[in-house]
Design a protein that fits this description.
Length: 206
């Protein structure tokens, strides 16, 4: 088959969560073929292996069916959002989509998971993500340094509270860029936060 590469595929952020249509699942199956292996990742993306020389054509075909396609590997993953059970407007569906567009696919020293919850119920488990966003009525709280894996798993710590919607993307992209520029090799984000300290990161983000 020649050289291959992996791409990450996910449905659009929507009320109800990560919902694929039968047409979309059929499209994924048709582009990868009967013998391909399809991996469901912990961050709500499907990894599929495709011929490198057909990557762009396959991505466009998947996108035409309403799917979103991102790089696999050491990048910021697409936003891991809640199900917006309180409704699209109250839970900030459009805000989540804007944030996802801004951060998904940024190359990083290690994969970065960003969680979004439209209310304090936190059904998307944002405090177990590298960066967590929680909508609190008309403002947003940002948490950093969550770690879901290993014997030393821990909750993210509150970095900033009371952000306005317009501040959300600039603050989070600033945090990601600072991590890219100042991490030591393939330093995990949670360890980076511990080393840099919460107070220093707060100054950078502010």
């Amino acid at each position: 088959m020649g050289e291959t590469t992996k791409i990450a595929v996910t449905p659009a952020i929507q009320v109800g969560g990560s919902l694929f249509t039968s047409e979309q699942l059929g499209k994924i199956g048709s582009v990868v073929g009967n013998d391909a292996k399809i991996e469901m990742t912990p961050f709500k993306q499907i990894y599929i292996e495709v011929p490198l020389d057909r990557r762009e054509a396959i991505a466009e075909e998947l996108q035409r069916s309403g799917l979103e396609v991102y790089p696999a590997g050491f990048v910021t993953k697409s936003l891991i959002a809640c199900n917006f059970c309180k409704g699209a407007e109250e839970a900030g569906l459009e805000t989540a989509r804007v944030l996802n567009k801004a951060i998904a696919g940024i190359e990083t020293p290690t994969p970065i998971k960003v969680g979004y919850a439209g209310c304090a119920l936190g059904t998307s488990e944002p405090l177990l993500k590298d960066i967590g966003v929680v909508k609190m009525r008309d403002t947003f709280d940002i948490y950093v340094g969550g770690e879901a894996k290993g014997l030393k798993a821990g909750l993210a710590k509150l970095l900033i509270s009371g952000l306005k919607e317009a501040q959300l993307v600039p603050v989070i992209t600033k945090i990601i860029e600072y991590y890219k520029e100042n991490s030591k090799g393939k330093e995990k984000f949670s360890k980076f936060v511990d080393r840099i300290t919460l107070e220093h990161l707060k100054q950078i983000a502010g």
